[in-house]
Amino acid sequence: MCRFLAYHGDPVYLDELVCAPTHSLVHQSLHAAEAQTETNGDGFGIGWYGDRPEPGLYRDVRPAWSDENLRSLSRQIRARTFFAHVRAATGTATTRANCHPFAHGRHLFMHNGQIGGYARIRRRLEAMIPDGLYEARQGTTDSEALFLLALAHGLDRDPVAGMAASVSAARSLMREAGIDEPLRFTGVLTDGESLTAYRWACDGRPPSLYWRETGTGLAVVSEPIDGLRAGWSEVPKGGTLIARPGEPVRVVGPEETGLRAAA
């Protein structure tokens, strides 16, 4: 499993959250506390929004703890919205194209989890992605496939319904193939102005997800970056965090998202 961090609010330097804290994401790349694997060394990525509507990306296959460029860029990039992700691969190749986050247009997406038995349904899942979106597929991960399929289901108009439809499609293929392994889906999506975080799983065991509002903005993390749970709220299992401009952050349950049908 992977670890990640998302931030949305007043502009801050990336290193203040990605590198500097006691249990920073870089530290978690070697010493994750709440993941199935302690080490997340199969690549990393950062995505951020500057003056243009489309996000910038920097991804590499080196472990985050050993990449001096990550630390240097994080000290120089100041952004109002950014994602950071460290990867522990779950069956697909360790390549730059498979590192998160993934970008399409103005959207950024990153994921922690997996589609059980993905190799058995991959061809049929990819066939559901319209040609215009499939042309944007660069890697081979289930995460990128779910993202592109969700865009086809109207993710840009309704981030919750679009993602629920994508997950539901994957679950239907899993059932048809007789796959007993679970689909676990903890992810974050943004268009630079709003943010949606999902903590879903068909077996009731989604990867961890926490959030808190600071003096500058909203942070959403796989694990508290200060190493302390005090001051952090856990997104409940089956929950979805929704942050929209001009509205308070809210967390809704599966009964409000239609997730029961999707999972």
What does this structure look like?
This protein is of the alpha+beta class. It contains 9 helices and 13 strands. It has helices at residues 15-18, 25-31, 68-76, 118-127, 131-134, 142-152, 159-176, 254-257, 259-262; strands at residues 3-13, 44-48, 56-60, 78-86, 102-104, 107-115, 183-190, 195-201, 210-213, 217-221, 233-234, 240-243, 250-252. It has a 7-stranded antiparallel sheet with strand order 3-2-4-1-10-9-11. A 6-stranded antiparallel sheet has the order 5-6-7-8-12-13. Strand 2 (44-48) and strand 3 (56-60) form a beta hairpin. Helix 4 (118-127) packs parallel to helix 6 (142-152), helix 4 (118-127) crosses helix 7 (159-176) and helix 6 packs across helix 7.
Please supply descriptive tags for the structure shown above.
single chain, 263 residues, alpha+beta, seven-stranded antiparallel sheet, six-stranded antiparallel sheet, 9 helices, 27% helix
Furnish the topology, listing elements before pairings.
Blueprint: E1 3-13, H1 15-18, H2 25-31, E2 44-48, E3 56-60, H3 68-76, E4 78-86, E5 102-104, E6 107-115, H4 118-127, H5 131-134, H6 142-152, H7 159-176, E7 183-190, E8 195-201, E9 210-213, E10 217-221, E11 233-234, E12 240-243, E13 250-252, H8 254-257, H9 259-262
Helix pairs in contact: 4-6, 4-7, 6-7
